[in-house]
Amino acid sequence: MAGKVTTSIIILTRNRAHLLTKNFDSLIKQSIKPNEIIVIDNNSVDSTPQAIKKYQKNLPIKTFKSLASGYSKLYNFGVQKASSKLLCFLDDDCVAEKNWLKSLINKHQQYPNSIIQGNAFSFPKDNLYAEIMGNHYQNWLKSNLIGKEELRFLDNKNLAIPKILIEKYGGFSQKQNLGSEDIEFGLRMRKNGIKIIFQPKAIAWHHERNNFKDFVKQHYRIAKSESRLDKNLKEDENKIGLLPKKKTLMNLQSALRSEYKYLLKKQWSKAVKLPFVYFTLLVIRILGYFKTQ
Q: At 94, is the pLDDT very low, low, confident or very high (cuts 50, 70, 90)?
């Protein structure tokens, strides 16, 4: 029954062939095969075209080049090129577990008129920055749960959307050219009565920034994008804010647990770095958020 649902997997990529190949390896192993994989290549100059060509022998990959800037334009371009009824979004730096697509389809069949949010864990393992991001993501999920399985927000690194919803209510907003286009999209869908349902069994492993410089740059961009979103939102109750109380408290609790673990295991380097990283994270978030105010 699950196989009767037609699926298009949409992947955006740019100069990350080494990660894209791992993504493709995981899609080859899926227990249910997608009908097509739409790869939007944002003008890569590395070996991405060669990697795509290699994997087209084993995967139904359709590749399209785009010079557009901003995630919204690229995602909307991918949606236009997709022909299936269920659109599944997966970041190019994600590795999907073998029942990832099957789990999304199963939950979609249970809630055919809803958006299905998958689960994500972080790697590489034993890396301080990946551990922080992994904790933050799980805290983001928990802090945004409404009841047992409905979410307030969505994240398009691991997601399934019936194409008919995009055709009816529109795609990703180009006002969010800095990012957080998925947050705006989810809020707009919920405003129109569409539920975001969490499927914890649809697991993807997300390759995080694994060094201080890239970690800081990522959070600065996120802070700017969330600030832009808050400026564009009219309803105060939907605004993210600089430091959302519930999620911030959960992140601090995660930090204390990690610090205790590092000390207990005598991982002195991590124990010393963690407070510094969190202090830097606070400063970067404030600077980024007020940059666009």
A: very high
